[in-house]
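agent> fetching stored inputs for the adenosine-5'-triphosphate docking request
agent> found them:
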Amino acid sequence: MFASKKDIVGIDVGSSAVKVVRLRESRGTFHLENVGIMPLDSETIVDNTIMDSTVIVDSVYFGFSHSLPLQITIMDSTVIVDSVRNLLSAMKIKTKRVATSVSGHSVIIRKISLPVMTDAELEASIQWEAEQYIPFDISEVNIDFQILGPDAKDPSQMDVMLVAAKKNFVDDYTTLFAEAGLEPVVMDIDCFAVENMFDYNYGFVDDEVVALIDLGASATSVSVLKGSMSIFTRDIQAGGNLLSEELQKRLGVSSEEAERAKLGDRHIADVDPDSVEEILTDAIENLVQEVQRSLDFFSATSSEDRISKIYLTGGVSNSVKIRETLEERLGIPVERVDPFRNVTINEKEFDSEYLDAIGPMFSVAAGLAMRKVGDK
Ligand SMILES: Nc1ncnc2c1ncn2[C@@H]1O[C@H](COP(=O)(O)OP(=O)(O)OP(=O)(O)O)[C@@H](O)[C@H]1O
Ligand SMILES: [Mg+2]
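agent> prediction call returned; pasting tokens
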């Protein structure tokens, strides 16, 4: 394969699997070159500990539900390095330049209100302005921002989206890639990568308010956009694992059996299919309630903007039940996103049914693969 110099590969290290997407761009259109996924064995999760450090998070600040653990669950980094390496080698990818992203507790995205000023003025004062919004020492974070526009209620103020990522977290992550022999030339944030993927495939409509919800294995991220502008984001520390954990606990089955049951296998020894349905219904109800709480919070803080549609990404969006429950509870139409909707696909190389089935899991990786060097 003659890779062009500007080629970058999108790599999403999710908590359940590493996902890689490689695209080729020609005349403004992306063509699918390669997709690959490598599950991270759940047995390798070291509960609540990072290899060398444990991050304690202020749960109140982030508004997480109180019952959840305050510590991050991250895997042994050598497992990730090996998985990334093996996956790229299986996909015969030689490019070293990759686009990747971070998310979770070490990343803070907040909409703040500041006196009206220019981009350059804010650039000069952002450290000082941001300080009060960040629960970490300001010297410990990388800060970025985007001016959203004037405050609707007070013309002397403007809305700014503030993004801060803990330096040591980003550094650890960069090191992990270096150990896999890779150079991250784009370091993105999960939800921005999803927005990028969405923009290419669906496009933003001016003034239309939509919610993009990424339903992953261990986390759910909610982001509300008005046109192309991100106006609200929130992380929920619960995802698809919640469903399998409930099944495992209440049915007394192994984690593998619980995962299979969740994905639709109704032939697990000594398990009544009806009770599987019942447990799943309950767990989905709980997850949907968390999402609803986030969106209620958005509505409470933003009086005039109403969400007209919800777009779902992440593996859990494959569940028809979760889509139906969301639609029912929220009274907003829900659509499962296809990250390859406008991507040209050679039918001889890729099975379209398979791509459709795995699609939602590749939303972040696809958005990353659409980045260019120099993108933030
Ligand atoms: N049909 C389905 N029904 C329910 N859950 C599903 C289905 N298909 C996949 N999943 C779940 O989706 C999750 C994987 O999704 P995804 O790849 O988006 O997560 P991740 O990126 O690894 O996790 P995170 O973003 O939380 O770190 C797993 O929990 C898997 O069980
Ligand atoms: Mg994910």
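agent> quick read of the result: The longest strand covers residues 29-39.
agent> awaiting further instructions
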